[in-house]
């Protein structure tokens, strides 16, 4: 299955709009998600991006509800390296990929401002957070690649005799959610591509209408859409060259 090109970032939290008390007591949040997801796909989005947020359901649970309700929908779940142990993340991703019959993708990020990542990793500098993400992704890759129990001892993670269930599913594609340009070279070593902000005013307007039709205040237009950039051999080579130049200048 080809990678989604344009994604709708679906706000599943209780803090949609200004009246959080109203949203927290809505009778059917899943119906809201389904309606907005359907509107986004109808307007031209290829998939739904589920972010990490301070409030509201876990994005994995939201993804499971959406792929069950909408059999053709593709979902990308945001995963932060510092917020979950890698073995648990690999198992969840494999399970969602199996249950959705190959309609799951991952968006990985080193930090997620929406969930106070700075507080959790305030003792780590930028390079250390990327190093932690590299360990995290290497464990995911190893678990998905072998049926043998995994042993791993790194700076940030340790894994003892871990293995995943025998599920009929290929590994979900992994994209890096770019926060700064220096992360691109890092992502080229570990991920299938990049996830970056996108602009499509007509589509954003359709999504805004869908939120308002459900009685919800839409999120800011600038955060609604994302697009993917898949790494090919040429992009990986250019990223490696830039990384080497930076190391030479350091």
TrEMBL record:
One of its GO terms (molecular function) is monooxygenase activity. Gene3D superfamilies: Luciferase-like domain (3.20.20.30). InterPro entries: Luciferase-like_dom, Luciferase-like_sf, SsuD_RutA_monooxygenase. It holds the Pfam family Bac_luciferase. Keywords: Flavoprotein, FMN, Monooxygenase, Oxidoreductase. Residues 31-233 form the Luciferase-like domain. This is Luciferase-like domain-containing protein. The lineage of its organism: Bacteria, Pseudomonadati, Pseudomonadota, Betaproteobacteria, Burkholderiales.
């Amino acid at each position: 299955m080809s990678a989604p090109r344009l994604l709708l970032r679906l706000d599943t939290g209780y803090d949609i709009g200004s009246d959080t008390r109203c949203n927290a007591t809505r009778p059917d949040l899943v119906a809201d998600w389904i309606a907005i997801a359907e509107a986004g796909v109808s307007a031209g989005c290829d998939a739904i991006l589920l972010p990490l947020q301070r409030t509201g359901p876990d994005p994995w649970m939201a993804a499971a509800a959406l792929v069950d309700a909408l059999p053709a929908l593709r979902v990308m779940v945001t995963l932060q390296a510092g917020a979950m142990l890698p073995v648990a993340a690999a198992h969840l991703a494999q399970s969602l990929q199996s249950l959705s019959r190959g309609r799951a993708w991952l968006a990985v990020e080193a930090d997620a401002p929406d969930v106070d990542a700075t507080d959790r990793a305030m003792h780590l500098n930028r390079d250390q957070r990327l190093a932690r993400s590299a360990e995290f992704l290497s464990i995911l890759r190893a678990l998905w690649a072998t049926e043998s129990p995994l042993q791993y001892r790194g700076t940030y993670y340790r894994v003892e005799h871990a293995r995943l269930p025998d599920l009929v599913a290929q590994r979900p594609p992994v994209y890096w959610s770019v926060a700064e340009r220096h992360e691109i070279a890092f992502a080229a070593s570990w991920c299938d591509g990049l996830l970056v902000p996108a602009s499509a005013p007509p589509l954003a307007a359709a999504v805004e209408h869908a939120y308002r039709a459900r009685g919800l205040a839409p999120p800011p237009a600038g955060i609604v859409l994302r697009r993917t950039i898949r790494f090919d051999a040429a992009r990986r080579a250019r990223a490696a060259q830039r990384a080497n130049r930076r190391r030479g200048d350091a």
